[in-house]
User: What shape does this take?
Amino acid sequence: MGESEELLAGHPWRRFVVLGDSVAEGLCEPVDGYSDLQWADRIAHELGPIAYLNLGVSGLRTREILATQLEPAVAFGPDLALVVGGGNDAFPATYDPERVDRELTHMITTLQDAGATVMTLGMFDVSYSPAVMEWLRPGLRQRMRTLSDRTAALAEKFGTIHVNLTDHPLSTDPGLYSSDGRHGNARSDAVATTETLRALNRHLRTHPRPSR
Assistant: This one.
C-alpha cells in the first residue's frame, strides 16, 4: 500500500494512450481478493488524473493494430504510449516474426516521433496455462519466447520502457492464467501492474526532469 505513489511521484505524463489486442483491452478473469480493474486501466489510475485513451481490441494482430489504432493514437497527442502486440500473431504456427517486428517498429517510432514516451511488453507465457493442450505447448512456448526476445531487442534498439513479464518467476505458474487458455487472470494483472509501475520508476530515475 502506497508504493505506487512513491514510484510515480512527480511523473511528467499527462496523456496516456494504449494500443493493442485483448491484453491491452483487458479480458482477465476475476479472482477473489484481486482488483477487477484491468491492467492498462490500473496503470492509468495509478498515474493519477490524466487524459486516457485505450484503443485495445481483442483478437487483433499487429498489422490490424497498426492499420486501425496508430492514427487515432497519434491524433490523441499522447506523451506516454503503451504498445501491446504480437500475441495473436505468435499463437498459430504461421507466425512471421520479421513482419511483426516491422509493424511494431512502425508503431513505436511513429509514436516517439509524435513526442510520446513508449512502453513495450514481453507477455506472460500462456503456454503454461492449464487450458492449453499438451501437444500445443512446445511450439507455442518457442513462439512466445521468440516474440518476447525480439520485442525486447526492439525495446533496446529504440529506447522504450520495456516490461518483461515472460521471464517473471510467476510466468510458469498455472494459477496465473484464465480458463480460456489465451489470457491471464486478475492475479496476472496485479503482477503486471506492479512490474509496469516499477519499470516506469526506473525510467524516471534514469531520465530525471530538468530543473526549472
Observations:
- The helical segments are 3-7, 22-25, 39-47, 62-75, 87-90, 97-113, 137-158, 186-206.
- The mean pLDDT is 94.
- The chain is about 45% helix and 10% strand.
- Residues 137-158 form the longest helix (22 residues).
